[in-house]
Amino acid sequence: MTDEPSNGELGRLIGALRSTLDNRFSELNSRLDKMVSLDVYTIQTTHVEHRLAQLQADIQRCAAEREQLEDNFEAYQRDESRRREAERQARLYQLIVPVAICIVDSVIAIWAVVAK
User: Fold this and answer.
1) Is residue 58 pLDDT above 80, yes or no?
2) In whole angstroms, how far apart are CA 41 and each of 30, 31, 60, 71?
3) pTM passes above 0.70
């Protein structure tokens, strides 16, 4: 009988075991409180995937708009270059034609004086 614990020791051991179990169960409960249910996780994952798909579509739309804007700007630059070249040619012709008429008029005037 000396190897067997007394009733007091058994009570203390059972109390210690009970407090250890209580501590472990409260720790487990606190961990479970941090866990997310499968339904909530599924809904959240679906929402995140949907939002990512929207963002990807927005990025693609912005990239397409940017490319269109770049194409429009290049076309504008080409058109502006053509317009400037046409304006330069028009100015040149506006200068050459009056000078040529003046020279022809002077030649005719000189020829008329010399021919008399």
Assistant:
1) yes
2) 19, 16, 28, 45
3) no
